[in-house]
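Field: sequence (string)
Field: structure_tokens (string)

Example rows 1 and 2, in order.
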Amino acid sequence: MKYCFILFSALVGLLAAGFSVDAQKKKKEAAQKPAGDESAYYKIQSLPIPEGEVLEGGAIEILPGNRIAFGTRRGEIWIIDNAFTDDPKNAKFSRFAHGMHEILGLAYKDEWLYVTQRCDVTRIKDSKGKGRADTFEVVTDGWEINGDYHEYAFGSKFDKEGNLWVVLCLTGSFTSDARYPRASSATASRSDVTIARRKSPNVMSTGGQ
């Protein structure tokens, strides 16, 4: 019994030493990477995009089944299957929608993909199961646009009350009003909260509470 205990203790010691050496090795490898190298902290993989396509990303959303919806400045939405595969070559891109306008927000809820584009918030879905969006419904378009190059609409994810928030870029001056429209997924209604002196916001988020 005594020898069994000694053998068990030795095995535990070897395992602990092994884990310690492995941890020190990983820590050393991370320290050797240049400052600002995200791969020291996050797993980074480059997914090969379809040949001949130009994807200028503006929004991203994770869908059920570990798929990714990817919105572009050119007004397209691509679905990426097998996006989390260990081998990037297994990732599959398919165009889900096109003909939209500078997509800068995607949020998924109740089988609908809510798209914030320059002119409105539209929700879309594939109702026929063919892998393409075939239903488009405008949820809100109350802010209007005039063609100024600096007009952008950035969409949030859904908050805990089921609302989407949209932050708008100003176009005239620093003293213009920036409106923050709210789009409700439950009622497809909207309301405005006006906050002055917001010129070039790029993102909107909610606090931890």
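Row 2 begins here:
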Amino acid sequence: MLACRSEYLLPQLPWLRVQLYLAELSSNQTIFVISAYTRFVPSSLTVSVAASKEIEPGEEITISYIPVGQTSEDRKQALGRWGFNCTCSLCSASRQEIEASDARRRLLYSLRDQAFSAFQQGKAYQALRLTKQVINMIPIEELFPLYSEQYENLARLYWSLGDHEKARENAKKSLDVLVEQGYLDSFKPEYLEMMWKNFEGR
């Protein structure tokens, strides 16, 4: 993982770590709308590239060099070490559009941090409400890779509240996203058991 990556909201399963990078189109152009992502499978020690959306014949495949979800200034700093001058549709948008996007992203991560703080203070219902707000903001900024961690966070919160049915529902959503992204071959019931043990600190 790069040192500048965003931390997950709540403690994550140690056996699943997702890292996404930003694509290089040329020596001076990058794009923040990724069409694919790299994935490392520890069990087979393999690295592969999986599509994150439908890719048309002849369409360029783009992956990410830095974590998704950063503000414009953070992206510039992160890419500076690589010598990139990004001219993607997001970075080259009007100043008003960039400021609006940055504000939404700051709000998203502020809500995430507030949810973490509430959870640490034993305020599970407040954390639950804030996490739902984070999930509702993800499609606005097209930060779809964040879904898995947030669904797991909901599962953890519902589990702490004793609602095991909703915990299972959101845990499965989290795992389904990882299956869809190719980090898991398929959904297996034992993965849920591993989650419950993780939630209970076993």
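free_text_note (row 2): DSSP finds six helices and four strands in the chain.
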